[in-house]
């Protein structure tokens, strides 16, 4: 069984809210324990979190708000998630750094790729906050860009309520089949909505593999990091 040396974990903001608005401390504590187990196993890890438990720029735009301003609000929501995760990781004695794309010196370091790599080499968890620092970019795209720039081996996309990539929505279509492996070209040809198209294209062009897997049961993040075949592996083929 082969494992990964350095990984980028992408988490959705909705997970942090436990399905509600705001942060559910019990959920964040559970996620922190899983990340801690990865660090203790000797794998370097960085994290990108969404902000959907606070704000979604596209949805606020539909309600009449300026899209750019709505996206900036979303980026600030992401930082709140980052600080919550940092707090629970440090309670577990895991050294953590938050780096943000929007400067906010009192709570986080600025995003500096080489410094992020150095932190990971020292066994620290790096949490990337505030999205890309620019509107119109999803956290899917941020996750891939940060993984490429910090030289991660793989992007791990942790999902809640689904355990991989299916031919259709398994909640709506009982005949949907799960893929164990996929190529980026195949996923695009079949119109599978795994991540937004920009993120997907970036992964494909740079031959960065992605594993899409379920957060449940507990311990899945460590299993994927160790190289167990769970979820769906998407690669350049």
From TrEMBL:
It is found in: Cytoplasm. The keyword Nucleotide-binding applies. Its EC number is 2.7.4.22. Residues 6-213 form the Aspartate/glutamate/uridylate kinase domain. UMP binds at residues 51, 71, 132-139. CDD domains: AAK_UMPK-PyrH-Ec. ATP binds at residues 10-13, 52, 56, 166, 169. One of its GO terms (molecular function) is kinase activity. It catalyses: UMP + ATP = UDP + ADP. Keywords: ATP-binding, Cytoplasm, Kinase, Nucleotide-binding, Pyrimidine biosynthesis, Transferase. Inhibited by UTP. The keyword Transferase applies. Pathway: Pyrimidine metabolism; CTP biosynthesis via de novo pathway; UDP from UMP (UMPK route): step 1/1. Catalyzes the reversible phosphorylation of UMP to UDP. NCBIfam families: pyrH_bact. Homohexamer. This is Uridylate kinase. The lineage of its organism: Bacteria, Bacillati, Actinomycetota, Actinomycetes, Propionibacteriales.
């Amino acid at each position: 069984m082969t494992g990964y040396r350095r990984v980028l974990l992408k988490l959705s903001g909705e997970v942090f809210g436990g399905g509600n608005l705001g942060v559910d401390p019990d959920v964040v504590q559970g996620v922190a324990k899983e990340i801690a187990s990865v660090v203790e196993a000797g794998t370097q890890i960085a994290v990108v979190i969404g902000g959907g438990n606070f704000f979604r720029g596209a949805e606020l735009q539909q309600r009449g708000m300026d899209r750019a301003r709505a996206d900036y609000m979303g980026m600030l929501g992401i930082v709140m998630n980052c600080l919550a995760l940092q707090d629970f990781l440090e309670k577990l004695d895991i050294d953590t750094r938050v780096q943000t794309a929007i400067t906010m010196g009192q709570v986080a370091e600025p995003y500096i790729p080489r410094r992020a790599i150095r932190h990971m080499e020292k066994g620290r968890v790096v949490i990337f906050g505030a999205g890309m620092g620019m509107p119109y970019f999803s956290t899917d795209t941020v996750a891939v860009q940060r993984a490429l720039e910090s030289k991660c081996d793989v992007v791990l996309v942790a999902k809640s309520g689904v355990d991989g990539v299916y031919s259709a929505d398994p909640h709506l279509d009982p005949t949907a089949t799960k893929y164990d492996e996929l190529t980026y070209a195949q996923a695009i040809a079949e119109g599978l909505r795994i991540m937004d198209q920009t993120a997907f294209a970036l992964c494909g062009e740079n031959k960065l593999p992605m594993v899409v897997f379920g957060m449940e049961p507990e311990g899945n993040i460590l299993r994927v990091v160790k190289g167990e075949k769970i979820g769906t592996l998407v690669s350049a083929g």
